[in-house]
Structure formats: C-alpha cells, structure tokens
Design a protein that fits this description.
The complex is a heterodimer of chains A (about 350) and B (about 150).
Chain A: E1 4-9, E2 21-27, E3 30-37, H1 56-62, H2 69-84, H3 90-118, H4 122-143, E4 152-153, E5 156-157, H5 163-189, H6 191-197, H7 205-210, H8 215-219, H9 250-274, E6 289-298, E7 301-310, E8 317-321, H10 323-335, H11 343-349, H12 354-358
Antiparallel strand pairs in A: 1-2, 2-3, 4-5, 6-7, 7-8
Chain B: H1 7-14, E1 37-40, H2 50-54, E2 60-63, E3 68-71, H3 81-85, E4 91-94, E5 107-110, H4 113-149
Antiparallel strand pairs in B: 1-4, 2-3, 3-5
Bound molecules: iron/sulfur cluster (2 copies).
C-alpha cells in the first residue's frame, strides 16, 4: 500500500468561489477519502427572527445568498403566505416566475464560467460571464438590483414588469439563446473540454438516491427530480419537463445545466406570453400563527423552508435547508478515487453555495 | 468530438470593441430603478417614524422636536422597505452608490426653519387646545359635583 497523506484543501483556494475546507486523504495522486468541514461564513441569519419582524425577514432571507437570492426571498414569503392563508394575485405569481428563471439563468451562466475557469479555459470563462452580464442588466432594469432583487414581500411583489421591460427581456433572451448555442458547442463537443469532464466523478443513480442528492447534480445521475413540477408560483401553468442525463459524470452535469439555460429561456418566454393583468400584491393583515413547510427548486437544487409563527410579529423559527448541504455527501462520494488534479472540477460541478449552507 | 471550437469566437473578440466601459473615466450608466441610495425630501416628512420601525438594519433615526432625519449610509442595504412604508412618500431610492470612506458616520437632514416654525406653532396650538379641553372638562366635573352636593 502506498503511503497515505492528508492534504488540506481550502477554505482559501483559487478554484473555490466560497470557503469550504476539505481534508483529502491521498494515496499517491488518488483521493481515498474526503472529509468536509464547513462553518467559515456562518452569519446567524435564522436567529435574526427574534429581532426582526416577519416582513423585515423577507429582506434578510434574500441575503442568505448572493446568487440564489431571489429563491430564498420567494421561498420564505410563500411559506409565510401559506401560514396566513393569503391568496397571491395571478400576476404576482407570473412575475415571480419570470424573476425566478432570470435568477436561474444568471446562476447557471455563472456556474458555466466558473467551470470553464476550473478546467483552465479562461477565454470561455469570460465569454460566459459576458453573456450573463446581459441577464444581470435585465434584472437591474426590472428590480433595481443586479443580484439582490428585493421585490418580494409577504403577499406578492413590490414592482411590476412593464410591457417595455418585457420586450427588453425577450430581446435579451434572444441574445442569450444565440450566444449560449455557441458556448454549448465548446462545452459539449470540444476535445480538450471533454477530456477534463468525461468519466470524471461518476455518481450512479443508486448512489445519488442513497445520498439524497438534489437538483442538477441528481438529475445528471438520471433522477427526474425537479421541484418546479410541483407547480408553485406559475410553473403549474407552463410546459416543462425535468432535464436529465444518465452519464452521472461532470460532462452530464454540464449537459443538464446547459439544457436548463435553454429551458429557463423557454419558461420566461412562455410566462411573458401568458402573463395576466391585475394586482401585484394582496393585502396582509395580522401576524402569522402556525407552521408550514415548503419545497422549491433553486438553481442548485431543492431548497426547503420551514417557518413557525406564534401570532406575534416575530417568528418562532425560520429554517432553510439548502441544496448544497444535500449535495455535500454526494460530492465526498465522487471525490473518492478521483485524481488530485480533478478535485477543483469536482467541487465546482455540484455548484457549491457555501454561504447558503451556513447562513 | 471537435477541436478549436472556440477559435472563431476568440478571434472575433480579438478584433471587436471591448464590451466593458472604461469606468470611472466613462461614467456608469444606471437604470431608472437602480437601488443605489436613499434620498429624502425632508420638508414633506412628518416625523412619523414608520421608516425607522420598518428598516431591517436599524440604520435610520428620526427626531420629531428637532425635525431631523438621519441615516447611516454604510449600514443601509438599499432594500427599499422604508420607501414602501413611508406614508408621505417623501423617501425615494435613487441611483448612485455610497462612496467609500474611513468612518461609518451618519448623515442628518434637518427641516427648513419655516417648516420647523410651522410645526412648532401647530404643536403649541394643539397643546393649547388640549389644555382648554382639559380645563373645560375639569370645570364641568366641578359643576356636576357642586350640583350633587346641593
Ligand atoms: S416614514 Fe416618511 S414621513 Fe414618516 S418619518 Fe420616515 S420619512 Fe418621515
Ligand atoms: S433602504 Fe432598507 S436598509 Fe436602507 S434605510 Fe431603507 S429600510 Fe433601512
């Protein structure tokens, strides 16, 4: 048996967008075991419910993460709305769907860039982020923020998307679709890209199931799980199928996410085509009393929200389970037997969002 | 499998104009809704304190007597909740971000002397009215007591 050595990986590492620490047990160049440790950016946002009322918490929930921020705000608001029995106007639901998909688009394009960066293709990295910038422009145009939307509130949304803005979004979608088709060729067909991704970090369907993986990571292993199929917000009225791949390797995960970029573009077009006229927010009276549990599909996978109110403005408990937390177990499994040089790519393929995980 | 799939794009980028702007030499373009910082039209403010109570960061403070409204811009997250809650709609989110600084100080806005004088006059009037009403009530009570005695 070769000599074993333990190499610390992170929390500061060029490939890591956020701090996570892995203790890698190596035998020569092969990883035998990976032990993750988290807790570098815990901010105690859940505890803030004791000091902030449930309306203010919508803004706090949004700041759990900078990339899936819209989803967190939305998940929290919808959970509270269920407790209080508020019927959200149809237009607000469509607006939320459009913003949700815009946030998925920018998250997936960001991931594509980081992935290109992880396998050392800087040119592709910048190209992805260049396309993403147009999506951020759309978000800024409609909400006023580039990554933090701040448009959700308990009862509906704060801002409307005017017809001119809808047109601007549709134009941007055409541009993003055209550019992503070009990017897709490189991601899916290029020889050097394939040599870094094909067959790397295979996670079988059984393993993914047993380890409770979520989102694109699970879909790439052939599990058709997509919380959007539950039909929350306006998803129930739009046509969509979960995008899956049976490869289970890095290539499969890339394929799923690139597919989802086109799916999001399609969903935004459908939603803008069907959006009804009307109010954008319902009247909210009283305080939440009761509890509710809600599952939504974040760009990184299934996120769960739990809220318990006690009839006062301050909630008893707010709890978020994030997709990255679910996927860490799967990540450690794929790391076993991997080459040391592939660690960066493997960590990035789960699209880790550590600040969500630690809140 | 293909090779050099990105060469076309890379070449095109090499000979096209940069997509980035030369900030700060070329000023940044903001959208109409950009949430940069909070502005107040202080003379419309009624010092009700709704904004103070709604702010998730506790960055605002209001003094009714002095007629001031203060904000610590470094603590503000530009969420816009105060703007939504203000009953007089005198707050607004405008483009342009807080400039960096060495100290986290707050900025105070004070109402103009005319508005302050007007408010003081109104307060006095109200106090006078309240005192009169109180005196009238006391007199009435005294009269009722005297009647009872008889
Ligand atoms: S909510 Fe508006 S009117 Fe009331 S104190 Fe704040 S700024 Fe003034
Ligand atoms: S924008 Fe938000 S953080 Fe800033 S002062 Fe208003 S409520 Fe407070």
């Amino acid at each position: 048996m070769a000599k074993r050595s333990v190499i610390p990986y992170g929390p500061q590492h060029p490939v890591l967008p956020e701090p996570i620490h892995l203790d890698l047990v190596l035998e020569d160049e092969k990883v035998v075991e990976a032990i993750p440790s988290i807790g570098f950016i815990h901010r105690g946002l859940e505890k803030l419910t004791e000091k902030r009322d449930f309306n203010q918490m919508a803004y706090v929930a949004e700041r759990i993460c900078g990339i899936c921020s819209f989803g967190h705000g939305y998940g929290y608001c919808e959970t509270v709305e269920h407790i209080m029995g508020i019927e959200v106007p149809a237009r607000a639901n469509y607006l939320r769907t459009i913003w949700f998909e815009l946030s998925r688009l920018h998250s997936h394009l960001l991931w594509a860039g980081l992935m290109a960066d992880a396998f050392g293709f800087e040119n592709l990295f910048y190209q992805c982020w260049r396309v993403r910038e147009k999506v951020l422009d759309c978000i800024e145009l409609t909400t006023g923020g580039r990554v933090i939307f701040s448009v959700n509130k308990v009862g509906g949304v704060i801002k409307d998307i005017t017809p001119e803005m809808q047109k601007a979004i549709l134009d941007t979608m055409d541009y993003v679709e055209k550019e992503t088709k070009i990017l897709k060729k490189t991601f899916m067909n290029d020889y050097s890209v394939q040599s870094r991704m094909k067959g790397v970090g295979v996670l079988t369907k059984e393993q993914a199931h047993a380890l409770g993986c979520a989102g694109p990571f699970a879909r790439a292993s052939g599990i058709a799980t997509d919380m959007r199929m539950r039909g929350y917000a306006a998803y129930g009225e739009l046509d969509m199928e979960p995008i899956i791949s049976n490869d289970g390797d890095c290539y499969g995960r890339c394929e799923v996410r690139i597919g989802e970029i086109f799916q999001s573009i399609d969903l935004i077009r459908q939603a803008i085509g069907k959006i009804p006229e009307g109010e954008i927010a319902a009247v909210v009276k009283g305080n939440p009393d009761g509890e509710y549990f809600m599952r939504i599909e974040q760009p990184r996978g299934e996120a769960d929200y739990y809220v318990r109110g006690n009839g006062t403005p301050n909630l008893d408990r707010m709890r978020v389970r994030t997709p990255t937390f679910a996927n860490l177990a799967g990540l450690c499994e794929t790391l076993k037997g991997a080459d040391y040089a592939d660690i960066g790519i493997l960590v990035v393929t789960i699209d880790p969002c550590i600040s969500c995980t630690e809140r | 499998m293909a090779i050099m799939t990105f060469a076309g794009t890379a070449l095109k980028n090499l000979f096209s104009k940069p997509v980035t702007t030369k900030y700060p030499a070329v000023p940044a373009e903001y959208k109409e809704r950009t949430r940069g910082h909070i502005e107040i039209s202080i003379d419309d403010c009624i010092s009700c304190g709704m904004c103070v109570r709604s702010c998730p960061c506790g960055t605002l403070s209001v003094d009714k007597i002095k007629g001031t409204w203060s904000i610590n811009r470094f603590d503000c997250i530009a969420c816009g909740f105060c703007v939504e809650k203000c009953p007089k709609k005198c707050l607004s989110v405008v483009a342009g971000y807080q400039e960096p600084g060495a100290e986290k100080g707050s900025v105070t806005y004070t109402k103009s002397p005319e508005v302050l004088a007007e408010e003081a006059r109104k307060r006095e009037e109200m106090a006078k009215k309240a005192a009169e009403a109180k005196a009238a009530a006391a007199a009435k009570a005294a009269a009722a007591a005297a009647e009872k005695k008889d």
